[in-house]
Amino acid sequence: MDKNTILNALKQVKYPGFSRDIVSFGLVRNISLRGEGADVILSVSTSDPSLPDHLRNAAHAALHNAGLDTASINIAIESHPLPATTQNTANADTPPPIEGVRCLIAVASGKGGVGKSTIAVNLACALARELTARKRPAQTGLLDCDIYGPSVPLMFGLHTRPDIEGDVLIPLERFGVKVMSLGFLIDEDAPVIWRGPMVMKTIRQFTSKVAWGNLDVLVADLPPGTGDAPLSLAQAAKIDGAIIVTTPQTSAATVARRGAALFDRVGVPLLGVVENMSYMETATAGRRAIFGSGGGAETARATGTEFLGQVPFDEVVREGSDNGVPCVISHPNSPASAIFTKIAQRVLEKVAIV
Questions:
Q1: Quick one: which of 50, 78, 133, 217 has the most CB atoms within 10 Å?
Q2: For residue 41, what are the β-bridge partners?
Q3: CA-to-CA distance for 338 and 341, rounded, in angstroms?
Q4: What is the value of pTM for the model shown?
Q5: How many other CB atoms sit within 10 Å of the CB of residue 254?
Q6: Cβ–Cβ < 8 Å for 122, 221
Q7: Do 3-81 and 104-350 come out as alike in CATH topology?
Q8: Contacts of 3 (CB under 8 A, 6+ apart)
């Protein structure tokens, strides 16, 4: 019996609700050999009281299937309970907030192609404009956690590399928003072929090694799905709330509910649901629901949260993303920008920034 054999066996144990295993998620805290046996320590942060026993049983089964004598292997679980999702209070077991950041808001989706990054970018700009209008000495930031497909640099029109002071990155800034993205640090055409631990390390660096300064709000644009990045962010920093992005059709809304369930599992409250590409206004036929209707409202109802708004399928939104000037900035009086502003105002109310 050796540590590598035990570790390889534990790689067969998936974290419930995820495709990744407990080793790549960093839950195996320690493996100590003792004679013919071993002690394994797993560290779990969860609001689900049944999860520790589930993981212990799954780990024993994986070790048994690997031909190991499970009677000689003790599996201890360091369980760190998280607060219920209806609460938004810090305790000793929750991750610490990012230094200088008053409120961290995650923008997520169950699947790709729903315009999540577009929502995150315009929301960040709308928050910055709204806080400026209130004459607050405030700052807004955007953290691009979409490691595999970082599109935030394009949407902000930022193509330079950030400065580094010691081992700390200095975020770039545009439209009153401080921005950090992996896209600033790699070549534009370079593929990101990373496994879970590398993603986790990058997320932790972005939360601890970026000079954000004093921010009222930091918006985190997460990759689609329920993979490494969302859980890594939840483990690295206190998330004050999450926004789920979907499109109207049933296929997107169904998957969006899975994304919402992730935040419930890690004790992050949902702030609401935003439906993107909800409808298109035409001169002759009026409003057309080209992708169906009702998905956002149904997702909000099913997850017990608020339906924050419907963003139209509007050319100015697409042009803003392609041209590096979000529509909230390029067309501040457009119907789409008005909706982003209302969403930003409601989000500030919900996180008690007035």
A1: 217
A2: 30, 76
A3: 5
A4: 0.72
A5: 16
A6: no
A7: no
A8: 31, 33, 38
Closest of 175, 233, 182 to residue 203, by C-alpha: 233
The two tokens of residue 173 are: 């800034």
Options 1.20.140.20, 3.30.300.130, 3.90.79.10, 3.60.15.10; CATH of 3-81: 3.30.300.130
Rounded to the nearest 10 degrees, the angle between the axes of helix 51-65 and helix 3-10 is: 120
- Other CB atoms closer than 10 Å to residue 42's CB: what's the count? 20
Interval 186-208 mean pLDDT? 69
104-350 CATH fold: Rossmann fold (3.40.50)
Least confident of 8-17, 89-98, 166-175: 89-98
CB 238 within 8 A of CB 161: no
Predicted confidence (pLDDT) per residue in 67-85, tens digit: 888 777 787 877 655 444 3
Q: Where are the alpha helices (DSSP H) in the chain?
A: 3-10, 51-65, 116-133, 152-156, 196-208, 228-236, 250-265, 295-303, 315-323, 327-330, 335-350
- The amino acid that residue 180 corresponds to is M
Tokens 């939104």 belong to residue: 317
Amino acid at 277: M
Reduced to 3 states (helix: H, G, I; strand: E, B; else coil), residue 31 is: strand
Contact predicate 105/351, CB 8 Å: yes
* Residue 147 neighbours by CB under 8 Å, 6+ apart: 182, 192, 194, 199, 202, 203, 223, 229
pLDDT, tens digit (0-9, with 9 covering 90-100), for 113-162:
899 999 999 999 999 999 988 876 668 999 998 877 688 999 999 989 88
Q: How far apart are CA 325 and CA 154, in angstroms?
A: 9
Query: 235 or 118: which carries more pLDDT confidence?
Result: 118
d(CA 300, CA 257): 9
pLDDT for the residue 43: 79
Q: What is the enclosing helix (H) or strand (E) of 54?
A: helix 51-65
Alpha helices in 216-334 (DSSP H): 228-236, 250-265, 295-303, 315-323, 327-330
All structural domains of the chain with their residue ranges: 3-81, 104-350
- Alpha carbons within 13 A on the beta-carbon side of 149: 10
